[in-house]
Description:
Number of helices: 5
Amino acid sequence: MDLSPEEIPNALAAAAQAAPAWQAAGATVRFVVTEPAAEFTLDPRGALTDAEPTHVLRIAAADLDALTSGRRTFLRTVTARRVAAHGPVMQTFAVGQALTAFSLQH
């Protein structure tokens, strides 16, 4: 991922707002991204928020890039233990599937 820690939240927010799958998942997700480090929360509309999250995803920026670029599925990322996810399971997978539909602006 060629985004700086400051750019990651805005890039994901823009992608989430443009992805119907994100809104359909209906989750407020706290992203804890490493390498580079960024921590932020997106609401069900894709906006950055300070609201209490329903889910927490811990993921390295390279793995997030692989998901959002379609190089890796969310299921493969989970089973390879490349992401730690906390929240209701079915909704977590809906969030993960939404991430694979993102188109990040680099």
